[in-house]
Design goal:
Two copies of one chain form a homodimer.
Chain A: H1 7-15, H2 17-26, E1 32-33, H3 34-41, H4 45-57, E2 61-66, E3 69-74, H5 77-92, H6 104-109, E4 111-113, E5 116-118, H7 120-131, E6 135-138, E7 141-144, H8 146-155, H9 159-164, E8 171-174, E9 181-184, H10 185-197, E10 201-203, E11 210-212, H11 214-223
Antiparallel strand pairs in A: 1-3, 2-3, 4-5, 6-7, 8-9, 10-11
The first copy, chain A, binds a DNA duplex (30 and 30 nucleotides) through residues 16, 18, 33-35, 43-51, 53, 65, 67-70.
Chain lengths: 229, 229
DNA sequence: ACCACCATTCGACGCGGATCGAAGCATTCG
DNA sequence: CGAATGCTTCGATCCGCGTCGAATGGTGGT
């Protein structure tokens, strides 16, 4: 099979542990400097620079110079989805880290997946929306129900405006820790933003952990009641 | 970011050219023997055996012994989707093969993507279905419309029966040659099967090319008329 | 029972690439 | 203008792993 695009180039880019760690760090959604990524990956700045150049040339990250800093971010949502798919397959293959870190439980509970909510609370939110008929899950492909449009508007999100964008409104994203779907897409991003705006939760600096306050968690569970609530 | 599953292991598996070629060959959907995969990848049988053992241990392929042959197949649909995502990113990054082979045009026109139709005719089919309101494309997430259920039943496919399965009914799959969506999932598989059954097209041995006969192509274009038809 | 064929294991070779030290450039601040 | 900081380039080193030759195990055919 010498036809088609060269898959192995892209895969080999993510195949190096240092580069994979950088990409995972960028899954937080915001751009990071080359130095930060070097520390994140546990390599020297020179090595990191070499890696980042390759990732940029491969179209996986986009560089942006700002003064004497070089910021790098994921090239797009497709790259983030690819990373999440890889994580799902890796988790399924039992390739979990041998030594789960101390923040692992918090990460499983609620984390950010590029720009939307993932982890236990992420799938619980989607479960609640589907259970109440606000989002339709037709065998894995998500769509907004007519009732859902009104609900989200009252929640402070305008689905019509989001749907006008070029980005898919809602998209099923396989959660590597829960092995079930959570919601991505423009709507998923807007919902996480609302959670931040209302002060229910905040990002822990330097991690992908989304930390809910006690009243924030209560409000979340009331807003998205489910079988577990 | 030392948390979460080890992404790099899985990516590194596909990162080797020989292994990537084997995986691409398996994207044809049917299981192949170790020897066939060795020829496909252009390596010796010993090397192929080593690669296949690693792929199997990584959960990307599943081995099956039959007599003195060892058959290997993709481990599941998720693996196939991951491969297609990689191909899409690779094509976007301009990582197309330097020397497009002689069968490349045929492959771009119509090929099999794991078990459903891809290529120019694949996206044309989805375009036609969406244009006639039989399938709804809500910003990238596909779902069957009420009218579509009746249509497919008259076409010889039972959507209700398919929906009872565990597999998603229809799923948008980014086409690497067209850079647009075609339809996968259980419905996509059933439609391709129908195309085979009606004698409109057949698989070329040893390739992913779906070759339409002249009358078959005419029937296809009549069944799925679009803006181009 | 013997041979043919296919797949796998073992061992050795060699290449590619990840890594870091040192130097070079650009930018910002005093 | 000089010093400090952050990123990148160059050169050298070294480890990992892909590769194949030879040998072993297992199955099917004669």
């Amino acid at each position: 099979m010498k036809l088609g695009p060269d898959i192995s180039r892209v895969a080999a880019l993510i195949g190096d542990p240092a580069r994979a760690n950088m990409m995972s760090a960028l899954m937080g959604g915001c751009a990071l400097t080359a130095g930060e990524l070097a520390r994140e990956a546990g390599v020297s700045p020179q090595t990191a620079s070499s890696h980042l150049a390759k990732l940029a040339q491969g179209g996986l990250v986009t560089p942006r110079r700002q003064g004497r800093h070089a910021y790098y971010a994921l090239a797009g949502e497709e790259v983030a989805e690819l990373m999440e798919s890889l994580a799902g397959l890796a988790a399924g293959a039992g390739a979990l880290r041998t030594r789960p870190g101390p923040r692992e439980p918090a990460l499983r509970a609620a984390r950010v997946c590029y720009d939307h909510l993932a982890g236990g609370l992420g799938v619980a939110m989607l479960d609640s929306l589907v259970g109440r008929g606000l989002v339709e899950d037709r065998a894995g492909s998500l769509s907004l129900s007519p009732e859902g449009a009104g609900y989200f508007r009252s929640f402070g999100v305008d689905p019509e405006a989001l749907a006008r964008g070029r980005r898919p409104l809602c998209r099923a994203c396989l959660d590597w820790s829960e092995r079930r779907n959570h919601m991505g897409g423009a709507l998923g991003k807007a919902l996480l933003q609302t959670i931040y705006d209302r002060g229910w939760a905040r990002r822990l600096d330097g991690t992908r952990v989304v930390a809910f306050s006690a009243p924030g968690l209560a409000a979340f569970q009331q807003a998205f009641p489910g079988s577990a609530g």
